Amino acid sequence: MKEKGRQGDQEKGGLAWWQLALLGVASTVGTGFFLGSAIGLKAAGPAYLAGLLLASFATYTVFESLAKMTAQQPEKGSFRTYAKQAFGRWAGFSSGWVYWLSEILIMGSQLTAISMFARFWLPNLPLWMCATAFAVLALLIIFLGNRGFDMTENILSVAKLAATVMFIIIAAAAWMGWLHGERPKGGLEAYRNWLPGGWIGAWSSLIFAFYAFGGIEVMGMMAFRMKQPKDAPKAGKVMLLLLTVLYGLTIGLVLSLIAPDKLNPKESPLITALSQFHLPFIPHVFNAVLIIAGFSTMVASLYAVVTMLVTLSEEHDAPAVFSRTAMKDRPMYALGMSAIGLAASIVLSLLIPGTIYETITIAAGLLLLYNWVFILLSAGRVLKEGSTGRIKRMTGLAFIIIAVFGTMARGPGRPGFWGSLGFLALIALVAWFMQRKVWSKQQAGGQS
């Protein structure tokens, strides 16, 4: 996004590697981990830990590929620009709009979720009013520019990390018997059966392990703003190593305190695990953490969709108006379009039946993974890599595909899988129409 003065300097060449790592934490750690892990644990039990390790490795291969392409040729459009270079205009068009649509739908569900958490303290506040307040605050943060965005996300990421560390300390104290004088026994029984749901349960839980790392593509887009783009892989390694250790310790301690079948999919497993110790501050602290986590990932997603819409417009894959600026050189038209999409997503989440919207949300999450596949395939054409790099990248690709098809292993995920293919077909149809009716004429006329 274009800005003047000191903020303009932040757009490109302003971020150090450790700042990108911190922003990566903010864009990644969200409700996918704090809430989604309950579903994964219930389906797979302790085997979910192995799923997290597989997801962590696959996520790193995606970011490493994206970081190497950024280091080789920094592009504001990030993965969609590399897809265009690798496979042609249809790929860049499809990748960009798949990402924009998926993030808009996911942001609507995130706003609804954090609004429900906020009603823990304000039970009489209408859900739509709460969601609107969070949406307006997010739009204001994006309007303030890169400096305001970076500062907000850094603060929120530190808060999330601090809360996770606090849980690890309290849970470790509980497991040692320092809270009630003896070690809890219920959770330890889980480790006697690593596959309580069988291989099908472990397979179906993989998608929730991947959701815990969702948002890594936002970090790839922000790598364009680094002082030294070649340091992007270092930022990804540090961030993913930190998250993998924290995720592993957190989930391991949850399983040591409570059996997987006692978890509530609608409640964070961190809260469920500690609720048995009757600590009065726990519900309030972790309710605040859930709000912070959901809001920070939502703001990061909003930043990404606005940036994506601007680059789509600049490369003539969206109306030209979206790359125009106004009000202190801000991309107000792209911001306005994203706000409209966000409002529509909020309305959908509040009005249509929960099961239908859950299907849409799962489909949107799968669309993100399809973009990861695009990134890995694009890297194969854009980068020159040795056999080790190819093997690593293809292994990550295989894990992603296995996780995607794991949604077919359980009933609730199947409609979402078919819904994601429906969204892909719709965007492919539009790309085909554009190729036949618009791009071919532009090429004939000598236009870009």
Question: How would you characterize this protein structure?
Answer:
With 448 residues, this protein is mainly alpha-helical. The chain has a single domain, classed as Amino acid/polyamine transporter I (Up-down Bundle), CATH 1.20.1740. The chain contains 18 helices and no strands. Helix 2 crosses helix 9 and helix 2 runs antiparallel to helix 11. The N terminus is likely disordered. It comes from Paenibacillus apis. It is found in: Membrane. Keywords: Amino-acid transport, Membrane, Transmembrane, Transmembrane helix, Transport. This is Transporter.
Roughly how many Å is the radius of gyration?
22 Å
User: Mind telling me the CATH class?
Assistant: Mainly Alpha
> How many separate domains make up the residues?
1
Mean pLDDT over all positions: 81
Instruction: Please report the distance between the alpha carbons of the first and last residues.
Output: 22 Å
Shape descriptor reads globular
* CATH topology title: Amino acid/polyamine transporter I
Low-confidence stretches: 1-11
Just name the CATH architecture: Up-down Bundle
Question: Helical residue percent?
Answer: over 70%
Label the structural class. Answer: mainly alpha
Percent of residues in beta strands? under 5%
Write a brief structural summary:
By secondary structure, this protein is mainly α. It contains 18 helices and no strands. It has a single domain, classed as Amino acid/polyamine transporter I (Up-down Bundle), CATH 1.20.1740.
